[in-house]
Amino acid sequence: MANYALLVLLFVSFNNGLYAQTITSPDKNLSLTFELKGNGIPVYQLQYKEKPVIKPSQLGIEVKDQPSFMDGFVISNTEQNTSDSSWEPILGEEKSIRNNYTELLVTLTQPKNNDRYINIRFRLFNDGLGFRYEFPKQKDLNYFVIKEEHTEFQLNGNHKIFWIPGDYDTNEYAYTTSKIAEIPALMEKATAFISAQTPIKNLAVQTPSMMKTDEGLYINIHEAVLVNYPAMSLNVDAENFKMSSHLTPDAVDNKGYLQTNTQSPWRTIVVSDDATEILSSKLILNLNEPTAYKDVSWIKPVKYIGVWWEYFVAGKSTWAYGEENNVKLDQDFSKLTPNGKHGATNERVKQYIDFASEHGFDAVLVEGWNIGWEDWIGNWKENVFDFVTPYPDFDVDAVRDYAKSKGVRIMMHHETSASATNYERRLDRAFQFMEDNNYNSVKTGYVGQIIPRGEHHDGQWMVNHYIHVAERAAEYKIMINSHEAVRPTGLNRTYPNWLAQESARGTEFEAMGGLHPEHTTILPFTRLMGGPMDYTPGIFQTDLSYYKTGGQQRVNTTLTKQLAYYVSMYSPIQMAADIPDNYSRFLDAFQFIKDVALDWDSTYIQEAEPGDYITIARKAKGKNEWFVGGITDENSRTASIDFSYLPKGEKYIATIYADAKDASWDKNPQAYTIRKVRVNSKSKLKQYIAPGGGFAISIKEGDVSELKTLKKI
Q1: Known catalytic residues?
Q2: Per residue in 47-59, pLDDT tens?
């Protein structure tokens, strides 16, 4: 009788889901355990090499005006499977990407809510974990409003963390490096003033969140496939080292509006005891869907220059044409009082076109060509731009034809001033204008407070807006480079014409207070985990007092560190951001920017430590050419460069652009050396990097006679 009672108890426990499910990654280093606790509360935990990464942490979704998906669950079904396949990105860091994971799908039913059920799907890769909530269509689950998502990440200690403040409207903060427990004391200082910011009221940081444990384990928390859902920040419990999801609200303080069949974005945890493997991870891309585009032949990398940096530093150029500060789109802009400083003039743009043509660039970005810039910012104005009407001193037809005669395209600029409603109303006319005038790429911008008023840059409404723009652009065969948009989550796989985003503190801030030398050693571990960044590198004149505008600001890098960025920060769209006159003064160094590829067959992360240094080598797609970039923080160091990826038995010419021995970011930034050496797969190089410096190497085939004259390393 006692044995029978025990069997009944075990049967009941099993059928109420009170048992744990465990899966391991293909290489067996990671293990994921899922179970129900207490009153049917979903809980997961993650281990790496038998060491805790995420301790038992709750899962759940709180909804409005109906029972929440927080507890009262039983496990009604589980499925496990494995997958191992490969796919080829349209543009990317690798020609082929392996997608290999173990999957656990758990169906959770709430018996007290008419057997309403949801799924939680876990995918465990060799480099980390992805999981999401799924809401199948069913009788008692059609429409619901999210009040908050309660996904927890219970960490195993007071980790070192690289963070920016939680904010609904900007991710352009400088990074702070601290222990988790130190975040409360540092938050006020870290939340520097930025236009249109909305800091989260409670203690929170943004994702991607990069951490390192005292034991040397690297942990990165972010999300993938952010579609029809608000972006996630992380609440921080600094005493208990616990983080939890915090979704961006809308104008009426709801977090999201969903209709079944639907799902949340994937929550991602990339894990390794080797920092180079964090940068090598393709987990976020693998969780995104393949593109549905049938024709992708028009999607190409873009190397461009532009009428842009001179607005920040030269002191002689402006976006606006007139002196007035109160304009309307239906007025006659030829009657404005010219300010004499307008940058986007026919003459000036043709100078950029000539330079682009001479040096083999694909496009010239022209900002400030269109009417409306006189009062574009700070007024929360809806009808601020029409995206088709030029200023009186910019002739669209003449500039278009001149660019075409030089083999160069003009890159469109659509600054929306955050008026997304205005942009959507005018979107088709704007894209048709681009198609009619030979524009195939556009830089979009969202500076300011969002319209619809009360919405946020990172809310569900705007998330859907950015995707709508990318999808609509594809119908016109237009490529998108978005600035001030929500941080990326791997959607460049699904929407490959969405080439890149800014979505972080980029080069423009070098002219607005400066960036710490460690900034770009952190970005690849944080912002770039989600996708390519238009960082706008290539500033050669780093001492900005050169322009004699009264400012003493400087770009906090050496010249050769600017070269290294073209390799260390991946993007298929790269700008040579400086004024052309400055490149003409350093044409030998400029050669690297002209040569460097934008699309790659292979990437080799050679050494890395977040906040300290990075060295990356890449093979150009379809060519026997390789490029290497290495950067450091404010400290000098010696980089270790391995050439074992070169074909065995072959010899190549390596051109090394390096900091001079007396170079530094603050005292001697333009001191550099250029030398050529002979390398093969057995070569190894120790390369000095100055404080705040970097180096760049191009590796190409050479004729036998030239190879014989070069020193072998």
Answers
A1: 508
A2: 999 999 999 999 9
